[in-house]
Amino acid sequence: MGAGVQGCRGAGCEVRRMKRRDFLTTVAALAVAPRTSAFQYRAPLALSAPPAPANSWPQFRGSYALTGISSTTIAPAPKLAWAWEGGEAFDSSPAIVDDVVYAGTATGELIAVGLTDGKLRWRYKAGEAIGESTPTVANGRVFIGDLIGVVHAVNVADGKPAWTFKTQSEIKSSPVVVGDVLLMGSYDGKLYGLDAATGKQVWAYTTDNYVHGTPCVVNGVAHFAGCDEVFHAVDIKTGKERFATSATAYTGASVALVNNVAYFGTFDNEVLALDLQSRKVLWRYEHPDRKFPFYSSAAVIDGTVVLGGRDRMVHALDARTGKARWTYMTRARIDSSPAIAGGRVYVGSNDGRLYALDLASGKVVWQHDEGAALSASPALASGRIVIGSTEGRLLCFA
Fold first, then answer.
1. pTM value?
2. Each residue of 43-77: pLDDT tens digit?
3. pLDDT given for residue 1 in this prediction
4. DSSP-derived 3-state class of residue 341
5. Where are the domains of the chain?
6. Residue 24 has what DSSP assignment?
7. Superfamily of domain 11-397 in the CATH hierarchy
8. How far is CA 331 from CA 21, 165, 291, 313, 353, in A?
């Protein structure tokens, strides 16, 4: 979903409005030079970031750039291979590494299930509940945050705890591990940099509201558009701010970054393309008739931006112009974040269906009716699609 986020759902998310946000909005409007002008971005040449490997989906959105792309090949009409019964909702999206699926449950358990057989490998009791935080798998461990604000590191081999770290509020953001640094946002308003091996705090970057979205990491810099209506860029080694500029609106979705441009939807019913070098909004997209927030995080491939809206629609936009290429209407809002492989867009809807849409035309080429809302996001690996439902079923299609 959009935090994974993911994005902020509760009514309390709309309450806090920040003076810093207002200042940055003014700065952006006047096109003032960035505060840290010595730092220059290196712009990639491709219209797509590298995809997740064909056999793994190790974190939320599959890769550091959060573009939601996999190099795996999915069957044209996949069948339900297995369904693991968890009993409570899966708001957490899955991660897949070494033929094992990892996901968090509303009962506060982190589970490991075989990708091919659907059998439980182990279960770890994290806390009272796990929300939208998606596991990240790296260095022989799986990491996740829970709704009482604890970051957990668990050994992939046996599900035994390695360490925990306590933040000051709930966690809905998903962890990202880059080298020896683990990044985690918290509703205490901070993005934390932790030592991935020990769990010790290396640094904490403070914002003016919840850190709900998952940080997108490119060139050693973490990027996220926050609930403080500010777009942040933070050095992952030092925790120092590289720059901060207006995100123009309250934002819950995570950012996808391709070709030096960040793509994300906002609670102001818009999708933005933000140039990171000029700090200027290149384009804004708003549906001409349906005015609803965007909570789903965007997938970006071959010059196309795809995301779901709370208007019940999947939107495909031209990455250069922001013009709509197509839209597809489902029967309920879409908080699920799309994943793309082989020219198909896979996305869940709260109407209880998992859809496969043709990337070029937006036409439905396959669907599964689960009968329960699919607000989590799909993971793609080894020719399989894995997604959890709000009725507590973890589903695998092959």
1. 0.91
2. 333 466 889 999 999 999 999 999 999 999 999 99
3. 56
4. strand
5. 11-397
6. H
7. YVTN repeat-like/Quinoprotein amine dehydrogenase (2.130.10.10)
8. 35, 40, 16, 8, 9
